[in-house]
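In this supplementary section we document a worked example of the pipeline. Step one takes a protein sequence of length 177 as its only input; no multiple sequence alignment statistics are reported here. Step two produces a three-dimensional model, which step three serialises into structure tokens for compact storage. The input and output of this example are shown verbatim.
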Amino acid sequence: MDSEIWQNIRNGDSSAMRTLYQGCYQDLYAFGFRMLPDKDKIKDCLHEIFSEIWQKRENIGDVKHIKAYLKACVRNKLLKEIKQDQLIERLPNNLDLVDLTVHSYEQLLIESENESDAKKRLWNALDLLTPMQREVVKLKFFDELNYEAIAILLKLKPRTVYNHMYAAIGVLRKALK
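The serialised model returned by step three reads:
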């Protein structure tokens, strides 16, 4: 793909958009399928990306490496999908989440202090981790990504991610005893 096609798309040439779509779709589909083996989600992702390009064509910047740009778009959109799927999976089946128990002021104050102490201990323990361990822990527990998504995001092998997590948990367990 050359930058002339991109410039033609920016100028509203629908045949250039069709050329881009036909020229890149199969490669992007294969790329996306390696990240997330779900045919329907990959197709939806690709159609959304091409639709967004066409809808925002007047405002998008100049791109020198079109395929690399499109792969980055696919990667980012699929990582969002993976994260969203993980959040949906963790929703409870019963949505009766309201706790109607009334607590005394003293009890709430004690719970707040205990929670504050626990947070301080956790942050101190996190400071003992290496930067890579801290990043893996952050992505796993705070951003709620799975190991495969973390590996893709950090450009590591899944086994390496598992090793960093294992070492980090060991350090945290020791520090929080």
